[in-house]
Amino acid sequence: MTNVAWVEQAIQRGSWVKLICGASNEDLASITDLCAVYAVAGVHCIDVAANEAVVLAARKGLKWARLNHGVNPWLMVSINDGKDIHFRKAYFDPRYCPLDCYRPCEKICPTQAIRQEKGVESSLCYGCGRCIPNCPFGLIKENNYELKIKHIGSLVNALKPDALEIHTAPGRIETFQQIISEIMISKVPLHRIAVSCGLNKQFTSPEQLAKELWQRHSCLRSHGQRPIWQLDGQPMSGDLNPLTAKVAVKLWEKIHHLAPPGPLQLAGGTNANSIQLIPPTKGPSGIAFGGTARALLKPWLQEAQAKQKNLWEWDAGWQASIEKARTLIGPWLSRNNQ
């Protein structure tokens, strides 16, 4: 079975699983290991930043998994059609930090990207934003990254992903259409284009969200592209609290009868509790795990880097990582909506 048929079959069953490495994550060593572990554990797709170094790191892990275990998930890259919290990094000048500060920003950072002498280590920051409100002096700001539309076609052509994800927001249909036109110019064959969106201060109702998705559906279908609708419940929060799982599931409950044709996938706040909140024989087409999937493997990722090895070169760490990854995605892989 080709990897396209394998993935499409999972979408039909409701057992599609995607790993989100992070649209702003540039921790190359961790990305390589995450891709290898979750590919072998059984995910169907791995989503990474649209960055050549990041894609190269991801392909290193995927190549190892393919050669040693015969698995071949899709590689997806994420882009945005405007300002989006997934495409940002925190920053501050540590020279302005009071010496007696108890550094709550450092304590709350999930990737240990904040260093007293450096501020924020950009390559480790994936933009969760948890440090920003926790600075008692308001010193931490965010840098937002928006790819110029005219560069998107050449970037897609250089990266040649299997699939693409576009993070969007209300009122940006014209920009979305321009991006799709640029993607078509690249002539890179894409298995699917995921559209990531959720309810927020601007999308105040399921009906409004559905209307925007229908606009994007018309655009995608006019270019012969097949969508996946990624319902972003509570972005980058799945590792914070088990209750965030409810947000993504409730969004699916509100939107699934209004949404345009195409698979609906949970994201944003998803964690190990998500599977318990949906009936076993109906529900979304799949799920994406981001922060919770990365946090689950953090101890072994860090120790492998300390050993200056890839995880697969450290037997005990590799086996422990695989087992831990399967506890998260295993229940989804065995689902069947039919």
Would you write up a description of this structure?
With 338 residues, this protein is α/β, with parallel strands linked by helices. Helix content is 40%, strand content 16%. The protein has helices spanning 3-13, 28-41, 52-69, 104-108, 149-159, 173-186, 206-222, 244-255, 291-296, 298-306, 315-333, and strands spanning 16-22, 45-49, 74-80, 88-91, 114-115, 119-120, 141-144, 163-167, 193-197, 227-232, 264-267, 286-289. α7 (206-222) links the parallel β9 (193-197) and β10 (227-232). It is globular, with a radius of gyration of 19 Å.
Order of secondary-structure elements: HEHEHEEHEEEHEHEHEHEEHHH
State the major sheet: 8 strands, parallel, barrel
Shape: globular
Widest sheet: strand order? Answer: 1-2-3-8-9-10-11-12
Radius of gyration: 19 Å
H/I helix tally? 11
The percent range for helix content is 40-55%
Please mark out the parts with pLDDT under 50 across 5 or more consecutive residues, or reply none. none
Quick structural overview:
This protein is an alpha/beta fold and 338 residues long. It has helices at 3-13, 28-41, 52-69, 104-108, 149-159, 173-186, 206-222, 244-255, 291-296, 298-306, 315-333, and strands at residues 16-22, 45-49, 74-80, 88-91, 114-115, 119-120, 141-144, 163-167, 193-197, 227-232, 264-267, 286-289.
Top keywords for this entry?
eight-stranded parallel beta barrel, 338 residues, alpha/beta, two-stranded antiparallel ribbon
SSE map:
Blueprint: H1 3-13, E1 16-22, H2 28-41, E2 45-49, H3 52-69, E3 74-80, E4 88-91, H4 104-108, E5 114-115, E6 119-120, E7 141-144, H5 149-159, E8 163-167, H6 173-186, E9 193-197, H7 206-222, E10 227-232, H8 244-255, E11 264-267, E12 286-289, H9 291-296, H10 298-306, H11 315-333
Parallel strand pairs: 1-2, 1-12, 2-3, 3-8, 8-9, 9-10, 10-11, 11-12
Antiparallel strand pairs: 4-7, 5-6
Helix pairs in contact: 2-3, 2-11, 5-6, 6-7, 10-11
